Amino acid sequence: MSCSINLKELGYKNSTKDVFNSVTLNVSHEEKVAIIGANGSGKSSLLKIIAGLITPTSGGVFLFHDEMKSLKDFRKYRCDIGYLPQDVSDHFLCPTVIEDVMFALRAKGKSKDDAYKKSYEMLQSLGIVHLENRNIYDLSGGEQKIVALAGILITEPKILLLDEPTNALDEDAEQKIIDILNSIKKSMIIVSHHKTFIEKLAPTVYKLNKDGLNRL
Ligand SMILES: Nc1ncnc2c1ncn2[C@@H]1O[C@H](COP(=O)(O)OP(=O)(O)OP(=O)(O)O)[C@@H](O)[C@H]1O
Question: Rounded to the nearest whole angstrom, what is the distance from the C-alpha of residue 49 to the centroid of ligand 1?
Fold first, then answer.
């Protein structure tokens, strides 16, 4: 099956330490993969590398079989990658929930009415329609996480990179996210410490350690 993401022998060293070496991973079209690992093992760094936000020290990143030799090469795939960071508090561009979710659609040229309708439906499907006109910065961490996810899913990216999507969520919200993500046929890499969440979502689980990924 055709691969959306190939990582070949990736190594990453930041200003303080050698984080990991030899990370090799192939994620097929529509495949869901989870990555677990100890605190500080480099899971968030790995997602940032795949999202084209930081550069690996060695090895190669291929998106849709196209090698990303520098951060510039990611530009043509920017709209195909939906990246949910672990901390979403700085992620928002608009004050209210509905405006923020509509933002990417408006930027893509959708009319205000179309963008509103689609965004409202997204809030409904995620169970947060009651937050529509709330100021994002008055929301709880869990509520902000779902709003950030809405803003990503609305753009229908081909690849989803989700860093701890359910931390700070209650059981109902977590189940909603599981149902939504299960219904989406995209390539996904999900970083999580949450065992039951992973079991319900990703058939393939890897553990990241200093020497690479081990399939569990
Ligand atoms: N900007 C930075 N500068 C220096 N060191 C950093 C930076 N960001 C992360 N680190 C360090 O790099 C290592 C990997 O961090 P990373 O956030 O990728 O780990 P993680 O596996 O996602 O951790 P967690 O499970 O706690 O979220 C950690 O030791 C962290 O302290």
Answer: 13
pLDDT digits (tens, 9 = 90+) for 152-190: 999 999 999 999 998 888 888 888 888 888 988 899 999
Atom of ligand 1 nearest to the CA of 164: 27
Q: How confident is the model at residue 83 (pLDDT cuts 50, 70, 90)?
A: very high
- Ligand 1 neighbour 44 (Cβ under 6 A): yes
Is the Cβ atom of 167 under 6 angstroms away from ligand 1? Answer: no
Complex confidence, ipTM: 0.94
Candidate from 39, 48, 54 with most ligand 1 atoms within 8 A of CB, to mutate: 39
- pTM of the predicted protein model: 0.93
Question: What pLDDT score was predicted for residue 153?
Answer: 94
Total Cβ atoms within 10 A of residue 14? 11
Q: How far is Cα 22 from Cα 209, in angstroms, rounded to an integer?
A: 10
Give 187-201 pLDDT, tens digit per residue.
999 999 988 889 899
Query: 17 C-alpha vs ligand 1 centroid, how far in Å?
Result: 10
Pairing of strands 187-191, 32-36: parallel
Domains and CATH numbers, the chain: 3-215 (3.40.50.300)
CA 212 to chain centre: 20
Buried b (16+ CB within 10 A) or exposed e, 145-182: bbbbbbbbbbbebbbbbbbbbbbbbeeebbebbbebbe
Question: The tokens of 34 are what?
Answer: 């989870």
